[in-house]
Amino acid sequence: MNANRRIQLKRRQFLGQGAAALAGLSVAAPWRRRCQAAEAHRPVRLGFVGVGARGTHLLDQTLSFEKLEIPAVCDIQASHAARSQNLVAESGRPKPEIYTRGEEDFRRLMDRDDLDAVMIATPWQWHTPMAVQAMKSGKYVGVEVPCAITLEECWQLVQTSESTGIPCMMLENWSFRRDNLAVLNIIRQGLFGEIVHCHCAHSHNCIDWYFDDQGRPRWSGNHLLARCADQYPTHSLGPVLSWMDINRGDRFETVVSMATKQRGITEQLIRKYGKDHPPAYFDWKQGDIVTTMVRTIQGKTIVINMDMQLPRPYDNRWTIQGTQGLYNEQRDSVYISGVSPGREQWEPFPPYQSKYDHRWWKNVMPRFQDRGGHGGTDLLELHLFVEAVRNKTATPLDVYDSVTMSVIFPLSEQSIAAGSQPIQCPDFTRGSWETNQPYFALDM
């Protein structure tokens, strides 16, 4: 079957179910049950593009799933591809065919007829081109963060998903954290009242991720040379979009960003490699800490911090605040007016997490003995994605939320370059946010 024919069939299959699937809503239950019954006998067939450290981890996690095959793997480094072949073989599955002929060889993989979905874990600049090619080839897409690094790429992903009818999901694992999903349930129960403000951050010294063991910039470090922006906004925003019903009754309106000067890269490189280490004196454009403020159409505000170049412990600093109370991740606490004891005193969050634990963590995660990376969030996210592929339903995160999280990268860059001027955020839903209903992690 040729590529155009595959696309036509996929478009009829998805678009025929109405706009709900592309809006991220569940497909009608009777149709879903018929698909589940029809597809239950056939394994989901995944192709992997990029099997370095992160891609290998994703591959290893999916190998714990039943009724799943890995027919093909692509990487520009033959050693990475061979390693993935061995991992698949060790799981008792046939060795996948490998594609290692250079940067464009992923196109041959995506032309295969025996793949249902493609997982992409490559350097950022390849995420959108690869995801677009996969969708045009009629395959579901699971793409690592951020899914796009320019405004134009965000629109490419939206337009390709809409024109092909193929779902595209960014693999933002912090959306699936146990504590964040419990907070989502608390918000949906109305305990915090009307949500008005959120603070979030990605605070993590990533100097060893940006540089190799000789202190030379990796591909990720090269972005620090070229751009000053919040280059990693999705871990901050992962749970926030559902907490605040973004694209579901509200949307980002304006973005304002500012950056500190750069000192962290230089000082850490000098301390580790000495004063004569040339990269320490490169003209790094990326400031150490970027602060972004977002105002929504409905008058809510969000503060986002990127803090990835200075020595510090890891944290996300989530605070979500409403008219009746708030949650604070650093304190691991909540305060609810009229419920919390004493006069405006914090309560520990763990009892609330137990009470409002999401069904995914109560019903899905106990199936897996080994929860794997990031406390089980990766495993849960991948399981839900694979089941969506298996049942031909909407993915747990849709393309609109995926690009909304990612667009902070280019918009913050524009604002910083313009002296911290407000930048308008595009409406990727083209007005559908006004009537779209919440869809993510509905606990029912």
Describe what you observe in this structure.
The protein has 444 residues and is an alpha/beta fold. The protein has 2 domains: 3-173, NAD(P)-binding Rossmann-like Domain (Rossmann fold), CATH 3.40.50.720; 175-360 and 398-434, 2-Layer Sandwich (Dihydrodipicolinate Reductase, domain 2). It has 18 helices and 15 strands. The protein has helices spanning 3-15, 29-39, 53-62, 78-90, 106-110, 127-136, 151-164, 178-188, 207-210, 219-226, 234-237, 240-243, 264-273, 350-355, 359-364, 377-391, 399-406, 408-417, and strands spanning 44-49, 68-74, 97-99, 117-120, 140-143, 168-170, 195-203, 252-259, 289-296, 301-307, 319-322, 325-328, 333-336, 347-348, 423-424. Strands 14-13-12-11-7-10-9-8-15 form a 9-stranded mixed beta sheet. The chain has a 6-stranded parallel beta sheet with strand order 3-2-1-4-5-6, with helices on both faces. Strand 2 (68-74), helix 4 (78-90) and strand 3 (97-99) form a beta-alpha-beta unit. Helix 6 runs parallel beside helix 7 (151-164). The chain starts with a helix and ends in a 20-residue tail after the last strand. The model is unreliable at 1-35 (pLDDT under 50).
